[in-house]
Amino acid sequence: MNTLGYAILSALGRKSYSGYELGKYLDNVWPAKHSQIYPLLTKMEEKGFLVHEIVEQVGRPNKKIFSITEKGKQALEKWIAKSPSDPIHRDEFLIKIYSASLLGEENSIKLVHERIAKLDESIASLSGKITEIEQMEELETTSKEFGRYLLFSRKYRLAEEEKAWCHWVLDKLKNKKIKFTVLFLAFAGRFSLPLDVFSWAAII
């Protein structure tokens, strides 16, 4: 089973979901398209990791509600006990900002401002989810909400940190040059030598 399968089992370990609801949950941990989720649900059910029941709806198509089985729980627990693989991070923005020297100042600044706008949206959404959980009187570490709280808090902090980095990038773009102070340790003492970014690049 691939990581998406275990992400599905992780969701169903909390509660039963429809395929659509699973897609919304997975957006927070392991984003996937419905064209990936539904075929995998069928395969996982065939292997006994989950089951489904049909829920009738008035005026709308009936929907399948999926639940984890005992075999699914055992598979999930075994997978959780293993060390995780190295994270895979793909971000088109990083490729573009890496090419800032080709974009030019105006386009680079526009790119970073667009990123900040998206980060602000994420921060607002995550803040709402965190506040909703924090309104509980207390949160046990054994609660199913505890994992959500950890996840949302991590994403919130990362978004805030990246937003601060974006403002740092804007500052550097507007200054047009970065100056470093490189400290060299010698036998007799320390020497301080300022180098601009282009000189430093030439040295290395």
Rg: 24 Å
Q: Could you give the distance between the termini?
A: 45 Å
Which range does the strand content fall in?
A: 5-15%
The spatial strand order of the largest sheet comes to 1-3-2
Organism: Neobacillus mesonae
Domain Transcription regulator PadR C-terminal: 90-174
Protein name: PadR family transcriptional regulator
InterPro entries: Tscrpt_reg_PadR_C, Tscrpt_reg_PadR_N, WH-like_DNA-bd_sf, WH_DNA-bd_sf
Please explain how this structure is put together:
- By secondary structure, this protein is an alpha+beta fold.
- The chain folds into two domains: 3-81, Arc Repressor Mutant, subunit A, CATH 1.10.10; 92-174.
- Helix content is 60%, strand content 14%.
- It has helices at 3-12, 19-26, 34-46, 70-80, 92-98, 100-103, 105-134, 144-175, 197-203; strands at residues 17-18, 50-55, 63-68, 179-185, 190-196.
- Helix 2 packs across helix 3 and helix 7 packs antiparallel against helix 8.
- The chain is elongated.
- It holds the Pfam family Vir_act_alpha_C.
- This is PadR family transcriptional regulator.
- Residues 8-78 form the Transcription regulator PadR N-terminal domain.
